[in-house]
Amino acid sequence: MRIKLRYGIFLGLCAIGIIVFCFQISSKNIISTPEKNIISISPSELQINEVPQGTVEEVVFEVENTSLHQTAQIYGYLNSCSCVWTTVDKKVLNPGEKALMHVKIDTSSRKGTLNLYAGFAWTCDNVQISTEVPITVDVVTVVECDVSKIDFSKVAAPTSCVLPLRKGTDTKMPWDAISVSSKSPSLTCKQINTHEGIYEFEVTLDPSALPRGSFSSALQIQCMKDNSPVHYLYEIPVSAQILGSVESKPPSLYLGVLPSPEKRTLSALLRSKTGTPLELLSIESSHPDFATATAESQSGAEIKLLCTFDPSSAKANQSGRFLLRTRINGKEETLAIPFIAFVKTP
């Protein structure tokens, strides 16, 4: 009887131990399994109406950890585009804790309805989760322009175009004029006309101080009130391919068949594309034994070159170039004049 009682007590204790052990495992699993919706953002979505173009709109959301026993740690921000910035004033949210999420939206160079989102990525028990809130912004235009960019293409002399701007759909912004400024001293803009709500500006690109190659800059559009800027709107990109200011006529020298030892002289005219006087600094030949060049003058709007070719020591086919260093408008510029000849030996 005592053995049976002891055996029964032993089995009872084993059963209680198993129950307690299972309960602990179950509780541990519940605590270690992150609940995906423990983070809430209020409001859960947002609509912002009539935001003037070019302004930075700031909104605040409330973030809460609704869990009773899990901690969330923020490690990154999620934004729909570069016009959205998000920050949360706390990196760690303990159970039941709240924080503020600040969202800034830049409407520069944007118009119409913007479908955006803002949020953050967080971890809970080494599980990565993200939470975002949708934001819809209705952007109204202050100044409208049908031109999204200006491309002057190939430019060798000062070149101009007309940029028309007109009043947009927003009537709340207090302004009485439009200002267009440039990020480059070689790019200028002046207002030339105003009629029926249209503001016309003349945009001029002067390549005289620019190096050859690609040029890129931008025009900045602003609203003015009493001759002071009150509202920045957007930028209009400007691009061009800058050509040299000096040219040669002809651009290359072709001698055809040149019997040896007969010498031949050809002339070329070096001139400025803009009519500005230029200065010839030096002339170099890639094959000085075959081709030489001299200038009748060292400066002027046009400089005549005399190019002499001596085939006595040349090969059957002879090609090369004259390299001319010039100075125009205080800027040095190099120009190459290629030449080619088919030398006929006796």
List keywords for this structure.
mainly beta; Immunoglobulin-like; 3 domains; five-stranded mixed beta sheet
Describe this structure in words.
The chain has 346 residues and is mostly beta strands. The protein has three domains: 39-140, Sandwich (Immunoglobulin-like), CATH 2.60.40.10; 143-242, Immunoglobulins (Immunoglobulin-like, Sandwich), CATH 2.60.40.10; 246-344, Sandwich (Immunoglobulin-like), CATH 2.60.40.10. 9% of the residues lie in helices and 60% in strands. It is built from one helix and 26 strands. It has one helix spanning 2-32, and strands at residues 39-42, 46-52, 56-65, 72-79, 84-88, 92-93, 98-106, 112-124, 127-140, 143-144, 150-155, 159-167, 177-182, 187-195, 198-205, 213-225, 228-242, 246-249, 253-259, 264-272, 278-285, 291-295, 299-300, 302-309, 317-328, 331-344. Strands 2-9-8-4-6 form a five-stranded mixed β-sheet, with no helix packed on it. Strands 19-26-25-21-23 form a five-stranded mixed β-sheet, with no helix packed on it. A four-stranded antiparallel β-sheet has the order 1-3-7-5, with no helix packed on it. Strand 16 and strand 17 form a beta hairpin. It is elongated. 20% of the residues are buried.
Kindly provide the name of the CATH class of the largest domain. Answer: Mainly Beta
User: What is the CA-CA span between the terminal residues?
Assistant: 138 Å
Q: In one word, what is the shape? A: elongated
Find the CATH superfamily of the largest domain. Answer: Immunoglobulins
Quaternary structure type:
single chain
Q: How large is the radius of gyration?
A: 38 Å
Mean pLDDT, all residues: 84
Tally of individual helices: 1
Q: List unreliable stretches of 5+ residues.
A: 20-33
Summarize the amount of helix as a percent range. Answer: under 10%
